[in-house]
Amino acid sequence: MKSLITGLALAMNAVLVAAPAHAQDKVLNLYSARHYQADEALYSNFTRATGIRINRIEAGDEALLERMRNEGKNSPADVILLVDAARLWKAETEGLFQPVRSKVLEERIPAFLRSHDEGKGSQWFGFSTRARVIVYNKQKIRPEQVQNYEDLARPELQGQVCTRSGAHPYMLSLIGAVSEHLGEARAEAWAKGVVGNFARSPRGGDTDQIKAVASGECGVALTNTYYFVRLMRSDKQADRDVVAKVGMVMPNQSSWGTHVNVSGAGVARNAPHRDAAVKFLEYLASDDAQIYFAVGNNEWPVVSSVVPKNPELDSLGKFKVDELPIGSIGRSQLTAAKIIDRAGWR
Ligand code: FE
Description:
Structural class: alpha/beta
Bound molecules: fe (iii) ion
Mean pLDDT: 91
Helix content: 40-55%
Largest sheet: 9 strands, mixed
CATH architecture of the largest domain: 3-Layer(aba) Sandwich
Low-confidence stretches: 1-23
Distance between the termini: 34 Å
Number of domains: 2
CATH superfamily of the largest domain: Periplasmic binding protein-like II
CATH topology of the largest domain: D-Maltodextrin-Binding Protein, domain 2
Number of strands: 9
């Protein structure tokens, strides 16, 4: 169904832009792994402001990348929008992006939340952030026991820890960040300790971990913040009941800070509408777009002057962010992948 609509949109586009030569700049092909309702308003506002219509191809991150590999030089993609540094970095190293010089993006997006074109000619920018935090069952665990990622390996948490597969990009990025801080050998010892504390073998997504903590099957787990806030804001009583049983810790506040990751985007390597693509990225960094982009999925804007109205998100409070460059977090997944293999974190 989705491809039918996309096909139709592309066909209509062909009719509409047939006449004037410069009209090719009036369309943008967006490959997006985001699929949130609030993003709709984001796209229509861009079209209203610029006259550039957006053809959207939505799929999972890996499916989008596979599509681009197959399309090669003929790919119609102008902008690629992905979640998590691990995936963005993968796309970067495969050369799926191109470098972008933009004063707007350089001024508005903090340097540690974008990749830097180190001669690779492939670059991307973070547009919203999420933190990877510890959740615990209030009946079973005291918050003092789980103040740090390292604590998940403490012997006293035997049989208490749940996570999704270590091979998932969210876990690869976190384990990679831990290895950046501790070094590979200590990070591996930590990973083995965590695996030794498993309450069950890894399965499910982040929301499943939170629910398993609430039910008491697990004492403690890891989740991205937006899944937790989504449950807080749910109109289902059962979801809010889950939240009531669960405490949340921003880890490593007295050391390197809580691991933060991004939703990010870059201009596609062979973008047919390059100017429109850069305009779209700059639009995503605007005040209004930052609010839509971030709050629609309960994330934080990357532009620090933007203050969204989201009381549940605000209730997580201010916290110390791990300011490891997001590019190095992406790269560290190679080490993380070795660690999870040796530790059996699958
Ligand atoms: Fe997610």
